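Board notes (copied after class):
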Amino acid sequence: MASSFEKYQKRRLISSYFSVVISISLVLFLLGLLGLLVLNTKKVADHFKEKIALTVYLKDTAKQVEIEQLQQSLALAEYTKTATFISKEQAAEEHSETIGENFMEFLGENPLQNSIDVYLLADYVSPAQLEEITNEIMTKGFVDEVVYDKPLIALLNDNVKKISLWVLIISSVFLFIAVLLINSSIRLSVYAKRFTIKTMQMVGATKRFIRKPFIWKSMKLGMIGAVVALIGMGLVLYYLNKSFPELQLLEDQLLLIGLFVGVFLIGILISWLSTFFATQRFLNLRTDELYY
């Protein structure tokens, strides 16, 4: 009978530990994903900014040497990522493929212009800087027009600022929720042993002596939960990097290592603090208050 009861208690204990580990790992996993989002918000925003083209349309009177010099100067400019020359013939072919028919058969001539598509570095994609770059390019006499999507750029910059602010707010709220959830899981685990704590105290054990095994056990559970969370984060990061290689998610290895170490330490720290205060609470209760 006693053996059966001991097995039952052992199963309950293992189940309790398993629940704590799962709770910690899930919370830390979601917290880590949010951390990845925070670290890569700017990178994702920069990726979309660098997809916006500044198109320089050239006059038909422009000489080939002038076009080549302009393309080379734009390619070497500090604000340029790439600069590609698009001939009017190439532009006509691409337009025909887009609309599904050869529009020059109806018009009898090619109305399109030679152009240079300039893709800027993300730091220069703002209304003020684009206006300055446009005015600089327009000083060339053989440049007919410089075109870019002004409403899209303004909207993109505004949304990036809003998204960055909300990501920080959500991260703070989620960190608070993570602390509460892990704390609740550990407190329930300690609550199940409240009578053991009080018994040890009644036979003369010091508070520090009583707390020590509980804190060490919780820290080990926190470590296990953190390792499980980090494995999950690593798999998600590997999948995202493989699916979206252009984002170069693994480029900032120092930041990633810092994030992984931070998540690991948070798991240990919260486990330690939660266990300390939970055991302290039951140590300060009277015996009759343990039943409530």
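Comment from the instructor: The mean pLDDT is 80. The chain is about 70% helix and 10% strand.
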